[in-house]
Amino acid sequence: MTDITEGHTVHKYDEELGTARRMVLEMGELVLDQVRKAVSALDKGNIGLAREVVDNERKIDSCELDIDEVILDLIATRQPLGRDLRLILALSKVAGDLERAGDKAAQIAWCVIRLMGRTSRRPASKILHHIHSLDQVARRLLERSLDALAKVDVDLALEVFEDGSQLNGLTGRRFGTETVDPLDKLEEGSQLDDGFDAALRHAMTFVLEDTQLVGQVLDVVFVLRALTNIGDHAGNIAEQVIFVAKGKDVRYQNKEVLVDTLRKRKE
Questions:
Q1: Long-range contact pairs involving 173-181 (C-beta distance under 8 Å, separation at least 24)
Q2: Which of 17, 77, 89, 98 has its CA 20 to 30 A from that of 221?
Q3: Can you spell out the DSSP letters for 201-250?
Q4: Beta-ladder partners of 178
Q5: How far apart are CA 188 and CA 59, in angstroms?
Q6: Beta strands in the chain (DSSP E)
């Protein structure tokens, strides 16, 4: 763990850097709460909770604006260099990813409002089956990436890549003699995109069985994609942690190769 907001000869500078990082982490907690409430609203068919998520989206937007103001002030008054500049740039990018993740939570809430508006009942549990698995993975990735940012911990950042990138196949994969839906193995680190593809195919089977479910299934698909995007934003945050700690921009690198390389360097 590295604390890079301390050690300057001007103590006020340390405080300002610490404030910027704290604001980003607090924004992250708000986004996590938004995602949790949005999925809970879907699970319970709670339109009031869904509307609360939609209303709170403005708080997330306001957080990003406040962070931007603090960062611009830091750049203008402190003219940061080296590691300090990397931290400030990373915090700005993280705030942007968090804002977009917050947007996805609001999109989930809007899906709940539409679903309840059509029938006043939540979709059948079998239609929502894969949402819970994908939600757990997406939130765990986001929590871990924020923890990595708080500690500037490369190992935690690498765990985000590992949990988001281990492959279990786009379709059901055989584990022993049993064919297993990859969504049932998400807790072991299946790739989010693989999970989405499997869940999409599962959702489409309900449309084939009953065309009246088209509207419900479409909204469920939107929720699945939103959760996948949230996991992607967690990966972006992990990339920024490595940028701060190592001074290396890894945004467009193969993550499996990156993880292997950094692990070997530590050994």
A1: none
A2: 98
A3: HHHHHHHHH-GGGHHHHHHHHHHHHHHHHHHHHHHHHHHHHHHHHH----
A4: 175
A5: 34
A6: 173-175, 178-180
> What kind of fold does domain 11-266 have according to CATH?
Methane Monooxygenase Hydroxylase; Chain G, domain 1 (1.20.58)
User: Burial level of 52, CB count in 10 A (0-12/13-18/19+)?
Assistant: middle
Other beta carbons within 10 angstroms of residue 133's beta carbon come to: 21
Rounded CA-CA distance 28/39 in Å is: 17
Task: For residues 231 and 243, give the distance between their C-alpha atoms in angstroms, rounded to a whole number.
Answer: 19
Measured over the CA atoms of residue 101, residue 239, residue 143 and residue 11, the dihedral's sign is: negative
Q: Provide the token pair at 12.
A: 């006020």
**What is residue 259's predicted lDDT score, i.e. its pLDDT?**
83
Question: Looking at beta carbons, which pairs linking 1-4 to residues 24 or more positions away fall under 8 Å?
Answer: 1/151, 1/152, 1/153, 2/151, 2/152, 2/153, 2/245, 3/152, 4/83, 4/84, 4/87, 4/152, 4/244
pTM for the model stands at 0.81
* 38-74 pLDDT tens trace: 999 998 999 999 999 999 999 999 999 999 999 999 9
Mean pLDDT (whole number) for 138-144: 94
Q: pLDDT tens digit string along 231-267?
A: 999 999 999 999 999 999 998 888 878 888 887 776 6
